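Lecture 7, part 2: worked example. A protein chain together with zinc ion.
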Amino acid sequence: MKSIPKSLFWAIVFAFVIIICTIVILLNKGDAKSAVIYQDNKIIKRIDNLYPDKTEHTTIKNDDGYNKIAWYDGKIWVEKADCKNQTCVNFGKLSSSGLSIICAPHKLTIVIEDSDSHADAVT
Ligand SMILES: [Zn+2]
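Predicted complex, written out as structure tokens:
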């Protein structure tokens, strides 16, 4: 194959990269986020919609106390807890998958997952 001009080659590569990036961003942007709450490494609650009309709550009770969890606008957080260190409350709002809120005294973990991975995990 005859070599194409270098500048044209790079222009094509560049355009290609931009297209791929745009697709990835659009796919990731999705509404499809859910949160999973684990206790003792077991799933105890799944929140399928992190975009309720107004802030929603649930309270997870355990032998040692409770964690009051709230979610809204794609974020989830521990609003109140009676654990000793309050790390979970001080963590703030979790909005991206890959991070997790951990309440070590209550053996509680909250993670956000994209619904694609969630389909895999459940079935
Ligand atoms: Zn805690």
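The first strand starts at residue 33 and ends at 39. The pocket of zinc ion is lined by residues 81, 83, 87-88, 103, 105-106 (CB under 6 Å). Keep this in mind for problem set question 3.
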